[in-house]
Amino acid sequence: NKSEHYSAQVRPPGTSRRIPQTIIIGVRKGGTRALLEMLDIHPNIVVAATEVHFFDWDENYVKGIDWYRSLMPFSYGNQITIEKTPGYFTSPQAPERIHDMNSSIKLLLILRDPTERVISDYTQVYYNRVESHKPVQLFEDIVIKNGALNTKYKAIQRSLYDVHMEKWLKHFSLDQIHIVDGNTLIKDPLPELQKVERFLNLPSRIMSSNFYFNQTKGFYCIRSDGRERCLHESKGRPHPLVNNTVLEQLYSYFKEHNAKFYRMVNHSFDWH
Ligand code: A3P
C-alpha cells in the first residue's frame, strides 16, 4: 500500500526525498485536490500531502530549497514527485522562482469555467467564515457594487486566466504547461488523467476501475490499493443559486478574457 508506505517516518531503502519534477500550479478551486489525489493512483507518482506554498510565500521561500525538499515524500528513482499549491498560478513571483529552480520543469494547470470558479471561491470563503463565526455576505452583494460588477473582488481577479497565464509564458514555453479541463475532470476523470500520463511520459496505469460514481456525494470517488474513498466534504459543496442578471454580467465580463486566453494557449474551452 503506497500511502502507508510513504507516510512512514523511516526512509524505505532505496528511496530519497526529491524536488518535484512536476507542480500543479493552480488554479484555486479548479479541482487541484481531485487532480492530485487521482494522479496519486499512478505507481510512478508520489505526491506531497499538504500545500507547500514555497514559491508564493516569501517567509517560506527564504527557507531555501533544502527546506522545500524536506517536505517531499520519499520516492524511488523511477517515480515523479508532484506538489500542488493552487496559489502559484496567481502569484507574481512564482513563475520566475520555479524557473530558477528548474527551467525544464513540467507544469500542470487545472482550470474550470471562470464564473463557476468565482462562485466556488465565494462558497469556500463563505463556509470558512461560518465555521469561525464571522459575518457573511450574499454573493450578489459582494459581486455587485453600486450597480456595477465589482471587478476588484479577489475571486474575480483570480479568474482572469489570460492575465495570469501571460506571466507564466514569459518564463515557460507552452509545451511545458499542460492544461487540465476541470469541468471535464468532474464529469469524466479518466480521459483527462490519461492526457496527463502522456504529458508526463508515464505508462498508462490509471484505469476506469479506479473510479466509481458516488450518488450521495454527486462526484466520482477513488478506488485504489483495495480502498475506496471520496474527497473531503469541503470538495464538491453545493453552490448558492445566483441571480441570472448577475451571472450574465460575469459571463460577459469574462468573455474577452477567455477569448484572449484561448488564443494564448491555442486551445478553446467550453466556458460561458
Ligand atoms: P466545489 O466544491 O466548488 O464544487 P480545489 O481542490 O482546487 O479547491 O477544487 C475544488 C473543486 O474540485 C470542487 O469545487 C469540485 O467541483 C472539484 N472536483 C473535481 N472533481 C471532484 C471530485 N471527484 N470530488 C469532489 N470535488 C471534485
Q: What's the helix and strand layout?
A:
Elements: H1 2-7, E1 16-17, E2 22-26, H2 32-39, E3 45-47, H3 58-61, H4 65-70, E4 74-75, E5 80-84, H5 94-101, E6 106-111, H6 114-131, H7 139-143, E7 144-145, E8 148-149, H8 154-158, H9 161-168, E9 177-181, H10 182-187, H11 189-199, E10 211-214, E11 219-224, E12 227-229, H12 244-265
Parallel strand pairs: 2-5, 2-6, 3-5, 6-9
Antiparallel strand pairs: 1-4, 7-8, 10-11, 11-12
Helix pairs in contact: 9-12
The structure holds adenosine-3'-5'-diphosphate.
**What do the pLDDT scores average to?**
96
Largest sheet: 5 strands, parallel
Strand order of the largest sheet: 3-5-2-6-9
The SSE string, one letter per element, is HEEHEHHEEHEHHEEHHEHHEEEH
How many beta-strand runs? Answer: 12
How much strand content do the residues show?
Answer: 15-25%
Q: What is the 3D form? A: globular
Radius of gyration: 19 Å
Associated small molecules? adenosine-3'-5'-diphosphate
Concise description?
The chain is α/β, with parallel strands linked by helices. The chain has helices spanning 2-7, 32-39, 58-61, 65-70, 94-101, 114-131, 139-143, 154-158, 161-168, 182-187, 189-199, 244-265; strands at 16-17, 22-26, 45-47, 74-75, 80-84, 106-111, 144-145, 148-149, 177-181, 211-214, 219-224, 227-229.
